[in-house]
Design goal:
The structure holds two protein chains of two kinds. Chain A is an all-alpha fold. Helices cover about 70% and strands about 0% of the residues of chain A. The radius of gyration of chain A is 23 Å and the shape is globular. The two termini of chain A are about 15 Å apart. In chain B, the strands form two sheets. An eight-stranded mixed β-sheet of chain B has the order 6-7-8-3-9-10-12-11, with helices on both faces. A four-stranded antiparallel β-sheet of chain B has the order 2-1-4-5, covered by helices on one side. In chain B, a hairpin with a 2-residue loop joins strand 4 and strand 5. In chain B, helix 6 runs parallel beside helix 7. Chain B is globular, with a radius of gyration of 21 Å. Chains A and B meet through helix 7 and helix 8 of A and helix 2 and helix 3 of B.
Chain lengths: ~290, ~325
Protein backbone atom coordinates (compact mmCIF):
# COMPACT_ATOMS: atom_id res chain seq x y z
CA UNK A 1 0.00 0.00 0.00
CA UNK A 2 2.89 2.30 0.69
CA UNK A 3 3.91 2.22 -2.93
CA UNK A 4 1.45 4.39 -4.77
CA UNK A 5 1.94 3.78 -8.43
CA UNK A 6 1.64 6.98 -10.40
CA UNK A 7 1.63 5.17 -13.70
CA UNK A 8 -1.85 5.24 -15.17
CA UNK A 9 -4.08 2.30 -14.61
CA UNK A 10 -5.05 1.87 -18.20
CA UNK A 11 -8.05 -0.29 -17.68
CA UNK A 12 -10.81 1.22 -19.65
CA UNK A 13 -13.74 2.81 -17.85
CA UNK A 14 -16.05 0.20 -19.31
CA UNK A 15 -14.06 -2.69 -17.93
CA UNK A 16 -13.84 -0.95 -14.60
CA UNK A 17 -17.57 -0.31 -14.49
CA UNK A 18 -18.29 -3.92 -15.33
CA UNK A 19 -15.93 -5.06 -12.62
CA UNK A 20 -17.75 -2.88 -10.08
CA UNK A 21 -21.17 -4.10 -11.17
CA UNK A 22 -20.07 -7.69 -10.87
CA UNK A 23 -19.02 -7.01 -7.29
CA UNK A 24 -22.47 -5.87 -6.25
CA UNK A 25 -25.06 -8.69 -6.15
CA UNK A 26 -28.03 -6.31 -5.97
CA UNK A 27 -26.98 -4.34 -9.05
CA UNK A 28 -26.15 -7.52 -10.85
CA UNK A 29 -29.58 -8.95 -10.09
CA UNK A 30 -31.25 -5.78 -11.33
CA UNK A 31 -29.15 -5.81 -14.45
CA UNK A 32 -29.81 -9.47 -15.20
CA UNK A 33 -33.54 -8.90 -14.71
CA UNK A 34 -33.47 -5.94 -17.05
CA UNK A 35 -31.50 -7.82 -19.68
CA UNK A 36 -34.14 -10.54 -19.45
CA UNK A 37 -36.90 -7.96 -19.88
CA UNK A 38 -35.04 -6.37 -22.78
CA UNK A 39 -34.62 -9.77 -24.46
CA UNK A 40 -38.26 -10.71 -24.05
CA UNK A 41 -39.67 -7.34 -24.96
CA UNK A 42 -37.12 -6.11 -27.44
CA UNK A 43 -36.03 -9.17 -29.36
CA UNK A 44 -38.42 -12.05 -28.82
CA UNK A 45 -41.46 -10.51 -30.57
CA UNK A 46 -39.36 -9.75 -33.65
CA UNK A 47 -37.98 -13.28 -33.74
CA UNK A 48 -41.30 -15.01 -33.31
CA UNK A 49 -43.20 -12.88 -35.82
CA UNK A 50 -46.31 -13.22 -33.73
CA UNK A 51 -49.24 -10.89 -33.93
CA UNK A 52 -50.44 -9.66 -30.54
CA UNK A 53 -53.87 -9.00 -31.98
CA UNK A 54 -54.38 -12.36 -33.67
CA UNK A 55 -57.79 -13.64 -32.66
CA UNK A 56 -58.51 -17.30 -32.13
CA UNK A 57 -62.12 -17.76 -31.11
CA UNK A 58 -61.66 -21.49 -30.61
CA UNK A 59 -59.21 -20.91 -27.79
CA UNK A 60 -60.97 -18.26 -25.75
CA UNK A 61 -59.85 -17.78 -22.13
CA UNK A 62 -57.63 -20.86 -22.33
CA UNK A 63 -55.57 -21.68 -19.26
CA UNK A 64 -51.75 -21.54 -19.53
CA UNK A 65 -50.44 -24.43 -21.59
CA UNK A 66 -47.49 -25.20 -23.88
CA UNK A 67 -49.30 -23.59 -26.77
CA UNK A 68 -50.18 -20.52 -24.74
CA UNK A 69 -47.73 -20.18 -21.83
CA UNK A 70 -49.70 -17.30 -20.25
CA UNK A 71 -53.11 -18.44 -21.47
CA UNK A 72 -55.44 -16.51 -23.75
CA UNK A 73 -58.00 -13.74 -23.35
CA UNK A 74 -61.69 -13.52 -24.12
CA UNK A 75 -61.14 -13.45 -27.90
CA UNK A 76 -58.36 -16.01 -27.84
CA UNK A 77 -55.39 -13.65 -28.18
CA UNK A 78 -52.20 -15.14 -26.78
CA UNK A 79 -51.41 -13.30 -23.53
CA UNK A 80 -47.71 -14.22 -23.68
CA UNK A 81 -47.38 -12.49 -27.04
CA UNK A 82 -49.39 -9.53 -25.80
CA UNK A 83 -47.28 -9.15 -22.66
CA UNK A 84 -44.13 -9.15 -24.80
CA UNK A 85 -45.54 -6.56 -27.17
CA UNK A 86 -47.18 -4.59 -24.38
CA UNK A 87 -43.81 -4.24 -22.71
CA UNK A 88 -42.57 -2.28 -25.69
CA UNK A 89 -45.31 0.24 -25.13
CA UNK A 90 -45.13 0.35 -21.34
CA UNK A 91 -41.33 0.51 -21.04
CA UNK A 92 -40.94 2.76 -24.06
CA UNK A 93 -43.46 5.21 -22.65
CA UNK A 94 -41.82 5.08 -19.21
CA UNK A 95 -38.33 5.72 -20.62
CA UNK A 96 -39.60 8.58 -22.72
CA UNK A 97 -41.54 10.18 -19.87
CA UNK A 98 -38.65 9.91 -17.45
CA UNK A 99 -36.17 11.24 -20.02
CA UNK A 100 -38.37 14.26 -20.70
CA UNK A 101 -39.19 15.09 -17.09
CA UNK A 102 -35.60 14.49 -15.93
CA UNK A 103 -33.96 16.70 -18.52
CA UNK A 104 -36.53 19.48 -18.32
CA UNK A 105 -36.63 19.29 -14.53
CA UNK A 106 -32.83 19.31 -14.17
CA UNK A 107 -32.39 22.33 -16.41
CA UNK A 108 -35.17 24.32 -14.73
CA UNK A 109 -34.01 23.31 -11.25
CA UNK A 110 -30.36 24.02 -12.05
CA UNK A 111 -31.18 27.44 -13.46
CA UNK A 112 -33.44 28.19 -10.52
CA UNK A 113 -30.64 27.32 -8.12
CA UNK A 114 -27.97 29.26 -9.99
CA UNK A 115 -30.00 32.38 -10.71
CA UNK A 116 -31.68 32.52 -7.31
CA UNK A 117 -33.64 35.56 -6.26
CA UNK A 118 -37.00 36.29 -7.81
CA UNK A 119 -36.68 33.80 -10.68
CA UNK A 120 -36.09 31.08 -8.14
CA UNK A 121 -39.09 32.12 -6.06
CA UNK A 122 -41.46 32.22 -9.01
CA UNK A 123 -40.30 28.84 -10.36
CA UNK A 124 -40.46 27.13 -7.00
CA UNK A 125 -43.93 28.49 -6.14
CA UNK A 126 -45.18 27.27 -9.50
CA UNK A 127 -43.75 23.85 -8.75
CA UNK A 128 -45.40 23.92 -5.31
CA UNK A 129 -48.75 24.53 -6.98
CA UNK A 130 -48.26 21.48 -9.17
CA UNK A 131 -47.09 19.39 -6.22
CA UNK A 132 -50.00 20.50 -4.07
CA UNK A 133 -52.46 18.55 -6.23
CA UNK A 134 -52.30 14.75 -5.89
CA UNK A 135 -50.24 13.62 -8.86
CA UNK A 136 -52.60 10.90 -10.10
CA UNK A 137 -55.57 13.28 -9.99
CA UNK A 138 -53.64 15.96 -11.86
CA UNK A 139 -52.39 13.46 -14.42
CA UNK A 140 -55.93 12.20 -14.96
CA UNK A 141 -57.26 15.74 -15.31
CA UNK A 142 -54.53 16.64 -17.79
CA UNK A 143 -54.89 13.42 -19.77
CA UNK A 144 -58.67 13.80 -19.84
CA UNK A 145 -58.41 17.42 -20.94
CA UNK A 146 -55.99 16.51 -23.73
CA UNK A 147 -58.19 13.59 -24.81
CA UNK A 148 -57.67 9.88 -24.22
CA UNK A 149 -54.67 8.64 -26.15
CA UNK A 150 -51.32 7.15 -25.20
CA UNK A 151 -49.44 10.19 -26.46
CA UNK A 152 -51.50 12.58 -24.32
CA UNK A 153 -51.09 10.31 -21.32
CA UNK A 154 -47.32 10.50 -21.81
CA UNK A 155 -47.36 14.28 -21.88
CA UNK A 156 -49.59 14.43 -18.82
CA UNK A 157 -47.35 12.12 -16.79
CA UNK A 158 -44.19 13.94 -17.86
CA UNK A 159 -45.56 17.35 -16.88
CA UNK A 160 -46.72 16.15 -13.52
CA UNK A 161 -43.36 14.53 -12.71
CA UNK A 162 -41.25 17.56 -13.61
CA UNK A 163 -41.58 19.36 -10.21
CA UNK A 164 -39.96 16.45 -8.38
CA UNK A 165 -36.85 16.83 -10.52
CA UNK A 166 -36.89 20.61 -10.32
CA UNK A 167 -36.87 20.46 -6.54
CA UNK A 168 -34.20 17.78 -6.46
CA UNK A 169 -31.97 19.58 -8.99
CA UNK A 170 -32.42 22.93 -7.27
CA UNK A 171 -31.59 21.55 -3.85
CA UNK A 172 -28.47 19.88 -5.18
CA UNK A 173 -27.48 22.98 -7.13
CA UNK A 174 -27.70 25.12 -4.00
CA UNK A 175 -25.17 22.82 -2.38
CA UNK A 176 -22.88 22.60 -5.39
CA UNK A 177 -23.14 26.33 -6.14
CA UNK A 178 -21.21 27.12 -3.00
CA UNK A 179 -18.49 24.56 -3.77
CA UNK A 180 -15.01 25.87 -4.35
CA UNK A 181 -14.80 24.56 -7.88
CA UNK A 182 -17.81 26.55 -9.02
CA UNK A 183 -16.23 29.69 -7.62
CA UNK A 184 -12.95 28.62 -9.21
CA UNK A 185 -14.63 28.14 -12.57
CA UNK A 186 -15.97 31.68 -12.36
CA UNK A 187 -12.53 32.94 -11.43
CA UNK A 188 -11.10 31.22 -14.48
CA UNK A 189 -13.59 33.02 -16.67
CA UNK A 190 -16.11 30.28 -17.42
CA UNK A 191 -19.46 31.17 -18.95
CA UNK A 192 -22.71 30.52 -17.08
CA UNK A 193 -23.64 27.77 -19.51
CA UNK A 194 -20.25 26.13 -18.98
CA UNK A 195 -20.64 26.37 -15.22
CA UNK A 196 -24.07 24.76 -15.42
CA UNK A 197 -23.12 22.08 -17.92
CA UNK A 198 -19.62 21.13 -16.83
CA UNK A 199 -19.47 21.93 -13.14
CA UNK A 200 -22.95 21.89 -11.69
CA UNK A 201 -24.88 19.24 -13.62
CA UNK A 202 -22.25 16.44 -13.41
CA UNK A 203 -22.09 16.95 -9.67
CA UNK A 204 -25.84 16.88 -9.10
CA UNK A 205 -26.49 14.06 -11.54
CA UNK A 206 -25.98 11.16 -9.19
CA UNK A 207 -29.15 11.62 -7.07
CA UNK A 208 -31.15 12.64 -10.15
CA UNK A 209 -30.13 9.47 -12.00
CA UNK A 210 -31.08 7.36 -9.03
CA UNK A 211 -34.40 9.15 -8.78
CA UNK A 212 -34.97 8.70 -12.52
CA UNK A 213 -34.24 4.99 -12.45
CA UNK A 214 -36.46 4.48 -9.45
CA UNK A 215 -39.08 6.58 -11.20
CA UNK A 216 -39.25 4.34 -14.26
CA UNK A 217 -40.99 1.72 -12.16
CA UNK A 218 -43.44 4.29 -10.83
CA UNK A 219 -44.12 5.67 -14.30
CA UNK A 220 -44.81 2.18 -15.66
CA UNK A 221 -47.39 1.88 -12.90
CA UNK A 222 -48.80 5.30 -13.75
CA UNK A 223 -49.10 4.54 -17.46
CA UNK A 224 -50.75 1.27 -16.52
CA UNK A 225 -53.05 3.16 -14.17
CA UNK A 226 -54.11 5.63 -16.83
CA UNK A 227 -54.64 2.86 -19.34
CA UNK A 228 -56.56 0.95 -16.69
CA UNK A 229 -59.10 3.73 -16.39
CA UNK A 230 -59.18 4.21 -20.14
CA UNK A 231 -57.15 7.40 -20.49
CA UNK A 232 -54.01 5.79 -21.85
CA UNK A 233 -53.48 3.11 -24.45
CA UNK A 234 -56.65 2.44 -26.40
CA UNK A 235 -57.90 -1.03 -27.39
CA UNK A 236 -56.90 -3.15 -29.11
CA UNK A 237 -53.34 -1.97 -28.33
CA UNK A 238 -51.48 -4.36 -26.06
CA UNK A 239 -50.35 -2.46 -22.97
CA UNK A 240 -49.79 -3.91 -19.51
CA UNK A 241 -52.13 -1.59 -17.64
CA UNK A 242 -54.89 -1.92 -20.20
CA UNK A 243 -54.50 -5.71 -20.08
CA UNK A 244 -54.75 -5.82 -16.30
CA UNK A 245 -57.83 -3.66 -16.62
CA UNK A 246 -59.41 -5.84 -19.28
CA UNK A 247 -58.71 -8.94 -17.22
CA UNK A 248 -60.26 -7.69 -14.02
CA UNK A 249 -63.77 -8.92 -14.90
CA UNK A 250 -62.34 -12.42 -15.30
CA UNK A 251 -60.05 -12.34 -12.28
CA UNK A 252 -61.99 -14.92 -10.22
CA UNK A 253 -62.06 -17.62 -12.90
CA UNK A 254 -59.28 -16.73 -15.36
CA UNK A 255 -56.56 -15.44 -13.03
CA UNK A 256 -53.88 -15.55 -15.74
CA UNK A 257 -55.50 -12.77 -17.76
CA UNK A 258 -54.60 -10.02 -15.23
CA UNK A 259 -51.86 -11.83 -13.37
CA UNK A 260 -49.24 -12.11 -16.12
CA UNK A 261 -49.30 -8.46 -17.22
CA UNK A 262 -49.30 -7.57 -13.51
CA UNK A 263 -46.26 -9.75 -12.87
CA UNK A 264 -44.55 -8.12 -15.84
CA UNK A 265 -45.13 -4.68 -14.29
CA UNK A 266 -43.83 -5.90 -10.93
CA UNK A 267 -40.79 -7.61 -12.42
CA UNK A 268 -39.79 -4.61 -14.50
CA UNK A 269 -40.32 -2.15 -11.65
CA UNK A 270 -38.17 -4.21 -9.30
CA UNK A 271 -35.46 -4.49 -11.96
CA UNK A 272 -35.29 -0.73 -12.43
CA UNK A 273 -35.30 -0.12 -8.67
CA UNK A 274 -32.42 -2.49 -8.08
CA UNK A 275 -30.46 -0.95 -10.92
CA UNK A 276 -31.22 2.54 -9.58
CA UNK A 277 -29.39 1.74 -6.39
CA UNK A 278 -26.50 0.34 -8.39
CA UNK A 279 -26.23 3.42 -10.58
CA UNK A 280 -26.06 5.63 -7.52
CA UNK A 281 -22.93 3.84 -6.40
CA UNK A 282 -21.40 3.73 -9.86
CA UNK A 283 -21.97 7.36 -10.73
CA UNK A 284 -19.95 8.57 -7.77
CA UNK A 285 -16.49 9.10 -9.25
CA UNK A 286 -14.92 8.84 -5.82
CA UNK A 287 -15.80 5.19 -5.89
CA UNK A 288 -14.33 4.48 -9.30
CA UNK A 289 -10.92 3.88 -7.81
CA UNK A 290 -12.21 1.15 -5.56
CA UNK A 291 -12.11 -2.40 -6.73
CA UNK B 1 14.64 43.07 -4.41
CA UNK B 2 12.34 45.05 -6.66
CA UNK B 3 10.27 47.73 -5.09
CA UNK B 4 7.68 50.09 -6.51
CA UNK B 5 8.57 49.88 -10.16
CA UNK B 6 7.71 53.14 -11.89
CA UNK B 7 4.95 51.57 -13.91
CA UNK B 8 1.19 51.41 -13.93
CA UNK B 9 -0.05 49.24 -11.09
CA UNK B 10 -1.74 45.97 -12.10
CA UNK B 11 -4.03 46.32 -9.11
CA UNK B 12 -5.03 49.67 -7.75
CA UNK B 13 -7.47 50.04 -4.89
CA UNK B 14 -8.18 53.65 -3.96
CA UNK B 15 -9.94 54.54 -0.71
CA UNK B 16 -12.27 51.57 -1.01
CA UNK B 17 -15.05 51.30 1.55
CA UNK B 18 -17.31 48.30 1.37
CA UNK B 19 -20.15 47.25 3.61
CA UNK B 20 -22.53 44.34 3.98
CA UNK B 21 -26.07 45.42 4.77
CA UNK B 22 -27.30 43.55 7.84
CA UNK B 23 -30.36 43.86 9.99
CA UNK B 24 -30.64 47.51 11.05
CA UNK B 25 -27.44 48.86 9.63
CA UNK B 26 -24.40 47.57 7.88
CA UNK B 27 -21.19 45.74 8.60
CA UNK B 28 -18.33 47.99 7.54
CA UNK B 29 -16.02 45.31 6.18
CA UNK B 30 -13.56 47.60 4.44
CA UNK B 31 -12.92 51.23 5.33
CA UNK B 32 -10.84 53.50 3.14
CA UNK B 33 -8.55 50.72 1.90
CA UNK B 34 -5.83 51.79 -0.49
CA UNK B 35 -3.51 49.23 -2.07
CA UNK B 36 -1.31 49.10 -5.10
CA UNK B 37 0.33 46.11 -6.70
CA UNK B 38 2.93 46.82 -9.39
CA UNK B 39 3.96 44.42 -12.16
CA UNK B 40 6.13 41.58 -10.99
CA UNK B 41 6.13 42.24 -7.26
CA UNK B 42 4.89 39.92 -4.56
CA UNK B 43 2.75 41.78 -2.08
CA UNK B 44 1.51 40.33 1.19
CA UNK B 45 -1.67 41.18 3.02
CA UNK B 46 -1.62 40.15 6.67
CA UNK B 47 -3.98 40.44 9.56
CA UNK B 48 -6.02 38.27 11.87
CA UNK B 49 -9.28 36.53 10.96
CA UNK B 50 -12.07 38.96 10.11
CA UNK B 51 -9.82 41.89 9.27
CA UNK B 52 -10.99 42.09 5.67
CA UNK B 53 -8.22 40.22 3.84
CA UNK B 54 -10.45 37.80 2.01
CA UNK B 55 -13.13 40.42 1.34
CA UNK B 56 -10.43 42.49 -0.35
CA UNK B 57 -9.41 39.50 -2.49
CA UNK B 58 -12.98 38.66 -3.42
CA UNK B 59 -13.84 42.28 -4.18
CA UNK B 60 -10.78 42.50 -6.42
CA UNK B 61 -12.16 39.77 -8.68
CA UNK B 62 -15.73 40.92 -8.03
CA UNK B 63 -16.69 37.58 -6.61
CA UNK B 64 -18.80 38.75 -3.70
CA UNK B 65 -22.51 37.96 -4.14
CA UNK B 66 -23.82 40.92 -6.13
CA UNK B 67 -26.75 41.86 -3.96
CA UNK B 68 -25.05 41.26 -0.63
CA UNK B 69 -22.67 44.21 -0.48
CA UNK B 70 -22.40 47.94 -1.17
CA UNK B 71 -19.43 50.01 -2.21
CA UNK B 72 -19.76 53.29 -0.36
CA UNK B 73 -16.58 54.99 -1.49
CA UNK B 74 -13.47 54.51 -3.55
CA UNK B 75 -12.57 52.57 -6.65
CA UNK B 76 -10.92 49.33 -7.68
CA UNK B 77 -8.99 48.90 -10.90
CA UNK B 78 -7.61 45.54 -11.97
CA UNK B 79 -5.31 45.75 -15.01
CA UNK B 80 -6.79 49.15 -15.72
CA UNK B 81 -10.34 47.82 -15.72
CA UNK B 82 -12.78 49.43 -13.31
CA UNK B 83 -14.04 46.22 -11.71
CA UNK B 84 -17.09 47.82 -10.13
CA UNK B 85 -18.35 49.02 -13.51
CA UNK B 86 -17.32 45.96 -15.52
CA UNK B 87 -19.88 43.99 -17.49
CA UNK B 88 -20.10 40.21 -17.22
CA UNK B 89 -18.25 39.88 -20.54
CA UNK B 90 -15.46 42.16 -19.34
CA UNK B 91 -15.22 40.20 -16.11
CA UNK B 92 -14.94 36.92 -18.03
CA UNK B 93 -12.22 38.39 -20.20
CA UNK B 94 -10.14 39.39 -17.19
CA UNK B 95 -10.77 36.41 -14.93
CA UNK B 96 -8.48 33.53 -15.66
CA UNK B 97 -6.37 35.33 -18.23
CA UNK B 98 -5.00 38.68 -17.03
CA UNK B 99 -5.83 37.98 -13.43
CA UNK B 100 -6.04 34.60 -11.74
CA UNK B 101 -6.92 33.47 -8.28
CA UNK B 102 -5.82 30.65 -6.01
CA UNK B 103 -8.12 29.57 -3.23
CA UNK B 104 -7.56 28.44 0.28
CA UNK B 105 -8.98 24.97 -0.17
CA UNK B 106 -7.34 22.98 -2.94
CA UNK B 107 -9.60 20.10 -1.96
CA UNK B 108 -12.71 21.90 -3.06
CA UNK B 109 -11.30 24.08 -5.85
CA UNK B 110 -11.20 21.16 -8.29
CA UNK B 111 -14.40 19.68 -9.66
CA UNK B 112 -14.54 16.09 -8.37
CA UNK B 113 -16.27 14.79 -11.50
CA UNK B 114 -13.71 16.04 -14.00
CA UNK B 115 -10.28 14.75 -14.84
CA UNK B 116 -7.40 17.14 -14.23
CA UNK B 117 -6.63 17.25 -17.94
CA UNK B 118 -10.18 18.07 -19.03
CA UNK B 119 -10.35 20.86 -16.48
CA UNK B 120 -7.02 22.35 -17.53
CA UNK B 121 -7.87 22.17 -21.21
CA UNK B 122 -11.18 23.89 -20.50
CA UNK B 123 -9.47 26.73 -18.64
CA UNK B 124 -6.84 27.15 -21.33
CA UNK B 125 -9.36 27.12 -24.14
CA UNK B 126 -11.63 29.57 -22.35
CA UNK B 127 -9.17 32.30 -23.26
CA UNK B 128 -7.26 31.00 -26.26
CA UNK B 129 -8.41 29.82 -29.62
CA UNK B 130 -6.24 26.72 -29.85
CA UNK B 131 -6.89 23.08 -30.60
CA UNK B 132 -7.44 20.48 -27.91
CA UNK B 133 -4.11 18.84 -28.69
CA UNK B 134 -2.22 22.12 -28.31
CA UNK B 135 -4.08 22.88 -25.09
CA UNK B 136 -3.18 19.41 -23.85
CA UNK B 137 0.48 19.98 -24.60
CA UNK B 138 0.35 23.34 -22.87
CA UNK B 139 -1.33 21.77 -19.82
CA UNK B 140 1.36 19.09 -19.56
CA UNK B 141 3.95 21.83 -19.82
CA UNK B 142 2.27 23.80 -17.02
CA UNK B 143 2.23 20.74 -14.78
CA UNK B 144 5.91 20.07 -15.47
CA UNK B 145 6.73 23.62 -14.48
CA UNK B 146 5.03 22.93 -11.16
CA UNK B 147 7.49 20.03 -10.73
CA UNK B 148 4.79 17.43 -11.17
CA UNK B 149 6.37 14.19 -12.24
CA UNK B 150 4.63 12.10 -14.87
CA UNK B 151 2.38 14.96 -15.93
CA UNK B 152 0.57 13.08 -18.74
CA UNK B 153 -0.58 10.46 -16.21
CA UNK B 154 -1.75 13.13 -13.77
CA UNK B 155 -3.81 14.65 -16.58
CA UNK B 156 -5.94 11.50 -16.60
CA UNK B 157 -6.57 11.47 -12.88
CA UNK B 158 -9.46 12.74 -10.85
CA UNK B 159 -8.79 15.29 -8.08
CA UNK B 160 -9.66 12.86 -5.30
CA UNK B 161 -6.85 10.59 -6.39
CA UNK B 162 -4.25 13.24 -5.57
CA UNK B 163 -2.79 14.59 -2.34
CA UNK B 164 -3.53 18.06 -1.02
CA UNK B 165 -0.14 19.44 -2.01
CA UNK B 166 -0.47 17.97 -5.48
CA UNK B 167 -3.91 19.47 -5.89
CA UNK B 168 -2.73 22.90 -4.84
CA UNK B 169 0.13 22.66 -7.33
CA UNK B 170 -2.43 21.89 -10.01
CA UNK B 171 -4.50 24.89 -8.92
CA UNK B 172 -1.39 27.05 -9.21
CA UNK B 173 -0.63 25.57 -12.63
CA UNK B 174 -4.20 26.46 -13.62
CA UNK B 175 -3.76 29.99 -12.31
CA UNK B 176 -0.73 30.43 -14.58
CA UNK B 177 -2.41 28.78 -17.55
CA UNK B 178 -3.06 31.97 -19.47
CA UNK B 179 -0.02 34.05 -18.51
CA UNK B 180 -1.68 36.23 -15.88
CA UNK B 181 -0.15 39.55 -14.93
CA UNK B 182 -1.45 39.21 -11.40
CA UNK B 183 -2.29 36.20 -9.27
CA UNK B 184 -4.37 36.65 -6.15
CA UNK B 185 -3.62 33.92 -3.66
CA UNK B 186 -6.04 33.80 -0.74
CA UNK B 187 -4.38 31.77 2.01
CA UNK B 188 -3.07 29.29 -0.56
CA UNK B 189 -1.38 26.98 1.91
CA UNK B 190 -3.51 27.16 5.02
CA UNK B 191 -5.05 23.77 4.32
CA UNK B 192 -1.66 22.11 3.78
CA UNK B 193 0.83 20.83 6.29
CA UNK B 194 3.92 22.85 7.01
CA UNK B 195 6.45 20.98 4.91
CA UNK B 196 4.20 21.00 1.87
CA UNK B 197 3.44 24.69 2.46
CA UNK B 198 7.02 25.69 1.80
CA UNK B 199 7.28 23.63 -1.39
CA UNK B 200 4.07 25.07 -2.76
CA UNK B 201 4.93 28.66 -1.87
CA UNK B 202 8.42 28.35 -3.32
CA UNK B 203 6.92 26.99 -6.54
CA UNK B 204 4.42 29.84 -6.61
CA UNK B 205 7.16 32.39 -6.03
CA UNK B 206 9.49 30.93 -8.67
CA UNK B 207 6.73 30.67 -11.21
CA UNK B 208 5.65 34.26 -10.63
CA UNK B 209 9.24 35.50 -10.89
CA UNK B 210 9.80 33.48 -14.07
CA UNK B 211 6.85 34.93 -15.92
CA UNK B 212 6.97 38.32 -14.26
CA UNK B 213 3.54 38.06 -12.73
CA UNK B 214 2.58 40.02 -9.65
CA UNK B 215 1.20 38.13 -6.67
CA UNK B 216 -1.14 39.39 -3.99
CA UNK B 217 -0.51 36.90 -1.21
CA UNK B 218 -3.13 36.94 1.48
CA UNK B 219 -2.16 35.19 4.67
CA UNK B 220 -2.24 35.35 8.43
CA UNK B 221 1.17 33.74 8.64
CA UNK B 222 3.92 36.27 9.24
CA UNK B 223 6.56 33.65 8.52
CA UNK B 224 5.18 33.22 5.03
CA UNK B 225 5.06 36.97 4.54
CA UNK B 226 8.63 37.54 5.65
CA UNK B 227 9.96 34.84 3.39
CA UNK B 228 8.04 35.34 0.20
CA UNK B 229 6.91 38.95 -0.17
CA UNK B 230 8.51 42.22 -1.23
CA UNK B 231 6.00 44.55 0.37
CA UNK B 232 3.19 44.07 2.83
CA UNK B 233 -0.05 45.62 3.90
CA UNK B 234 -1.07 45.04 7.50
CA UNK B 235 -4.84 45.11 7.91
CA UNK B 236 -6.86 45.49 11.05
CA UNK B 237 -10.66 45.59 11.28
CA UNK B 238 -11.13 46.52 7.66
CA UNK B 239 -8.42 49.16 7.50
CA UNK B 240 -4.85 49.17 6.30
CA UNK B 241 -2.89 50.21 9.38
CA UNK B 242 0.63 49.92 8.04
CA UNK B 243 2.39 49.27 4.78
CA UNK B 244 5.93 49.19 3.54
CA UNK B 245 8.76 46.94 2.37
CA UNK B 246 8.44 43.61 4.13
CA UNK B 247 11.81 43.61 5.88
CA UNK B 248 11.37 47.15 7.18
CA UNK B 249 7.83 46.63 8.45
CA UNK B 250 8.76 43.37 10.13
CA UNK B 251 12.01 44.55 11.71
CA UNK B 252 10.91 48.08 12.58
CA UNK B 253 7.11 48.10 12.86
CA UNK B 254 5.60 51.51 13.50
CA UNK B 255 1.99 50.66 14.20
CA UNK B 256 1.18 49.20 17.63
CA UNK B 257 -0.90 46.48 15.97
CA UNK B 258 1.94 45.34 13.73
CA UNK B 259 4.20 45.11 16.73
CA UNK B 260 1.61 43.24 18.75
CA UNK B 261 1.11 40.84 15.84
CA UNK B 262 4.85 40.21 15.62
CA UNK B 263 5.08 39.62 19.35
CA UNK B 264 2.26 37.10 19.14
CA UNK B 265 4.31 34.80 16.92
CA UNK B 266 5.87 31.67 18.45
CA UNK B 267 9.31 32.83 17.29
CA UNK B 268 9.15 35.81 19.64
CA UNK B 269 9.18 33.87 22.90
CA UNK B 270 11.46 31.38 24.55
CA UNK B 271 10.57 27.72 24.35
CA UNK B 272 7.94 26.41 26.76
CA UNK B 273 6.83 29.86 27.90
CA UNK B 274 3.30 31.03 27.24
CA UNK B 275 2.61 32.52 23.84
CA UNK B 276 1.88 36.21 23.81
CA UNK B 277 -1.52 37.29 22.60
CA UNK B 278 -3.24 40.57 21.86
CA UNK B 279 -5.79 41.23 24.59
CA UNK B 280 -9.37 41.94 23.58
CA UNK B 281 -11.21 41.14 20.37
CA UNK B 282 -11.98 42.85 17.08
CA UNK B 283 -14.39 45.79 17.46
CA UNK B 284 -17.99 45.37 16.32
CA UNK B 285 -17.85 46.39 12.67
CA UNK B 286 -21.54 47.28 12.64
CA UNK B 287 -20.81 50.31 14.79
CA UNK B 288 -19.34 53.54 13.54
CA UNK B 289 -15.91 53.80 15.03
CA UNK B 290 -14.91 57.44 15.10
CA UNK B 291 -11.30 56.95 16.13
CA UNK B 292 -8.55 54.39 15.62
CA UNK B 293 -10.03 50.91 15.24
CA UNK B 294 -7.24 49.36 17.26
CA UNK B 295 -7.64 51.79 20.19
CA UNK B 296 -9.71 49.32 22.21
CA UNK B 297 -6.84 46.82 22.31
CA UNK B 298 -3.89 49.19 22.16
CA UNK B 299 -1.76 49.46 25.29
CA UNK B 300 -0.66 52.95 24.26
CA UNK B 301 -4.09 54.36 23.43
CA UNK B 302 -4.86 57.90 24.51
CA UNK B 303 -8.27 59.55 24.72
CA UNK B 304 -8.04 61.21 21.34
CA UNK B 305 -7.26 57.81 19.72
CA UNK B 306 -10.85 56.82 20.46
CA UNK B 307 -12.49 59.96 19.15
CA UNK B 308 -10.60 60.99 16.02
CA UNK B 309 -9.12 59.13 13.06
CA UNK B 310 -5.36 58.85 13.33
CA UNK B 311 -3.36 60.56 10.56
CA UNK B 312 -1.36 58.62 7.97
CA UNK B 313 2.31 59.09 8.72
CA UNK B 314 5.19 58.37 6.43
CA UNK B 315 8.54 58.07 8.14
CA UNK B 316 10.18 57.10 4.84
CA UNK B 317 8.86 57.40 1.28
CA UNK B 318 7.66 53.83 1.04
CA UNK B 319 6.48 53.13 4.56
CA UNK B 320 3.13 54.41 5.77
CA UNK B 321 1.27 53.84 9.04
CA UNK B 322 -1.84 55.22 10.66
CA UNK B 323 -1.26 56.29 14.26
CA UNK B 324 -1.51 59.34 16.50
CA UNK B 325 2.04 58.82 17.74
CA UNK B 326 4.45 60.72 15.59
CA UNK B 327 7.03 57.97 15.32
CA UNK B 328 4.65 55.13 16.03
CA UNK B 329 6.13 52.46 18.22
CA UNK B 330 9.58 52.70 16.67
CA UNK B 331 12.28 52.34 19.28
Amino acid sequence: MAVLSLSPTRRSDLARTWHRISQSPVTLTGLVMLVLVALCVGILPSLLHTDPNAINLRARLAAPSWAHPFGTDEVGRDIFTRVMHGGRVSIGVALFVVAVSTSVGTVIGGLSGILGGRVDTVIMRLMDVVLAVPSLVLTMALAAALGPSLWNAMIAIAVVRIPTYVRLARGQTLVVREAGYVMAARVFGARSAQILGLHVVPNILSPILVQATLDIGAVILMVAGLSFIGLGAQPPAAEWGAMVSAGRSYILDQWWYSAFPGVAILFTSIAFNLLGDGIRDLSDPRQKGRS
Amino acid sequence: MTLSVPNDPVLSIQGLSLEFPVWRGALHALEDVTMQVYPGEIVGVVGESGCGKSVTAMATMRLLPEDAYRITAGSLHLLGQDMMAATQAQLRAIRGSGAAMIFQEPLTALNPTRRIGDLMIEVIRAHRKITKADAHAHAVDLLRQMRIADAPAIMRRYPFELSGGMRQRIVIALAFANDPRIVIADEPTTALDVTVQRQVLTLLQNRARDVGAAVLLITHDLGVVSEYTDRIYVMYAGKVVETGPTDRVLTAPRHPYTRALLNAGPEAVAAKSALASIPGTLPDLRQDIPGCRFAGRCALAQDHCRTALPPMRSPSPDQVFACWMEQGVAA
